[in-house]
Design brief:
- The chain has 424 residues and is mainly alpha-helical.
- Helices cover 78% and strands 0% of the residues.
- It has helices spanning 23-41, 48-54, 59-87, 89-108, 113-141, 144-176, 178-199, 214-225, 228-258, 263-291, 293-317, 322-326, 330-348, 355-378, 386-410.
- Helix 3 runs antiparallel to helix 4 (89-108).
Length: 424
Amino acid sequence: MHVQPASPSLPTGTTAPKLPMSPHLVVVLVALLMGIQPITTDLYLPALPMLRGELSASMMQVQLTLTALSLSFGISQLVWGPISDRFGRRPVLLIGLSAYTVAAFASVLAPHIEALIVCRMVQGAAMGASVMGARAIVRDLYEPVEGARMMSKGLSGLGIIACLSAPIGGLITQFSGWRAVLTGVGLFGALALFMVATRFQESNTHRNPNALQARILFSNWRAVASHPTFWAYTSIAAASYGGLFTFLATSSFVFIGVFGVSKIGYGGLMLMMTSSYLCGTFLCRRLIHRLGVVNTVRVGAAMSLASGLTLIALPLLTQPTVWTTILPFIPFMVGHGVHNPCGQSGAVAPFPTMAGAASALNGFIIMAVAFAVGTWIGLSSIDSVYPLTTGIGFWSVCVALAAQFLVGRYGEVGTNKPHTQKPA
């Protein structure tokens, strides 16, 4: 996107038009808007065992601080998406980030686990505006293949944020406790809000005045939900995130509780994982350039499957240790760095005039998977590595099947035409 210089000769009393956002600014904004998700979860993970003790909470209640957030996050996108198609991305982002920041600081003062769960649910609902908006912005500004590259760059920024989140969360938890961690979450929300308020220019130039009418709304969702390309990329993104969420929900209890790793040490292990994800986003851009999106997804799926099968096999063959659990997970995280940008951009690519609705439905499905995973883990007893290893193994198989039979068949954007027209 080329930035045109402002005209030197403007009539007296007029203002110079705003310059379009540069690609670098778009990447920074997407990184912040998407990065709010790992900040909300990863920064908080080292604090879960401490929080459970201090608030006298059950395992199910502790898991609810993650799963309730995920569910409200997913459902809210179904609301935010059509609103942003009607009124634009900017007002939705400003309202959502304001609510997120207020809820984050309110959670710092939560006197008991029930209040914390409510605050986290509000955070999740508000966070939906941010993540949905980021996906829609990329589709507003870029065509599908370039959109996948731009999403990958934005998710590289997310990877850097995620790399820092768990180690910093571990340090803060070790020396200042879980309430200080949640203060950090609120400060990040305030930063994202400031950037959107001061630097973001509206990207939705094709607002649909009928987007909130019930008939049009359901017609748009039906168009999205009946498109095979949407399901191909949503399936790969949801299966990959299912494996990641399994790790997020179990890892602090496995590494700190079962293996006796310190909170700071756990943060270091998470740094290793998020660094692997970051490498995957860089690999994604290189592979897209050489192989195209569909074959790039297949390469990522091969890494995910190898990782998952190894995680299932090793505990059956040898005594589980920190390293036999963490090292085999690295290829899965590299694969996730490939699947996340391809899946999220590919799911909305066929819908240039319904990017908000498509992004919302994509996000809802991914978070529904996360909620199901978190509920299953909440009902389990995490006193061994098996919930972690078998869960990731299961999702790695799902990733491979989605890559081969869905993305392989329906992944070329533009080959499936039935629902790429303008919305009703």
